[in-house]
Amino acid sequence: MKESAHSKLSRRERQIMDILYRRGRATAAEIHAALPDPPSYSAVRAKLRVLEEKGHVRHEEQALRYVFLPTVARERARRSALRHMLETFFDGSAAQAVTALLDLSAAELTPQDLDRLSRAIEEAKREGA
Q1: How do the domains of the chain map onto residue ranges?
Q2: CATH fold of 5-70, please?
């Protein structure tokens, strides 16, 4: 999968991938049931075929049903999506993105969360030096 391939997914394709990443594997019927404002069942099957053609999912046959699984590790997909988000919304700046996240969630962060962030920042400083 190319690093930018995640950004080429439609909204509905991303929703399907989110379901597969949460569950690890699912049938078309399970995906259909989990989608917000779901399209027809046949539309879900069509999207799964497209995702398979794009190389994002594969299927296994189990008890005469297809079970779909993501082909790209969640961490790799996450990194690709973050890289795309940084480029699209933050001019490639991780600092701008972190600042925006802190602005959004400062009230929700625990002292332990803030300590973990401080340690990550100190480690990044050491690695960058």
Answers
A1: 5-70, 93-129
A2: Arc Repressor Mutant, subunit A (1.10.10)
Separation of alpha carbons 58 and 35, rounded Å: 19
DSSP 71: S
What gap in Å lies between CA 68 and CA 55, rounded to an integer?
Answer: 12
Residue 17: what pLDDT? 94
Confidence of residue 7 (pLDDT cuts 50, 70, 90): very low
By DSSP bridging, strand 26-27 and strand 57-62 are unpaired
SS3 sequence of 6-56: HHHCCHHHHHHHHHHHHHCCEEHHHHHHHCCCCCCHHHHHHHHHHHHHCCC
